[in-house]
Amino acid sequence: xxxxxxxxxxxxxxxxxxxxxxxxxxxxxxxxxxxxxxxxxxxxxxxxxxxxxxxxxxxxxxxxxxxxxxxxxxxxxxxxxxxxxxxxxxxxxxxxxxxxxxxxxxxxxxxxxxxxxxxxxxxxxxxxxxxxxxxxxxxxxxxxxxxxxxxxxxxxxxxxxxxxxxxxxxxxxxxxxxxxxxxxxxxxxxxxxxxxxxxxxxxxxxxxxxxxxxxxxxxxxxxxxxxxxxxxxxxxxxxxxxxxxxxxxxxxxxxxxxxxxxxx
Length: 264
Prior knowledge:
This protein is mainly beta.
């Protein structure tokens, strides 16, 4: 075989190998799209009202779609809270490696800190994907939802809570969500902060028939029927509409669920 043929075959072989290697790189994971604050079905990165490590705080919930490739067996989650002078995140470190889960609650987090996350997928050959989109979230202090009474008439239903935020972290909006005992969301109301001092005093908000006093509303338009329900309050700040969507919250916290019993 001539030297020219050897060079030609080498070029073909190397080129094919390069293409094969590129084809073997898994596609990057995709985050679950975030829901709007008033949506009954909460999706995407969000505050979560359970934190087993720090019970008085929230955790950050992260969800992503399963990679469509059949040979994916690991996901690697990376996080940082460090940014440069232009607010670009730096110094990511791995906080999770999981085989099957597409849901993670980050409990090692504090309030008023912006956390950034990205994912990578890994196949059975140990080849990692490129990084996913980088997303971020900030937690506020956890508010306290108050149980007004064991039983209440639907027409007299009001929600009370205590929220004590500080400085520039005072929320612009609140969302109240009501679920049936089964866990089905049936009513939500997004409204402007009624107490911009957020000084830790009791705050009350009447149930809004037809969502008439809400900025945004989802679910039933009538009074709640007799039965057992649960509700929670969520202080939040929306995106700025320039670098982040003004339809989604980028900062929030959630109270624990509180039981209410509606009577005739």
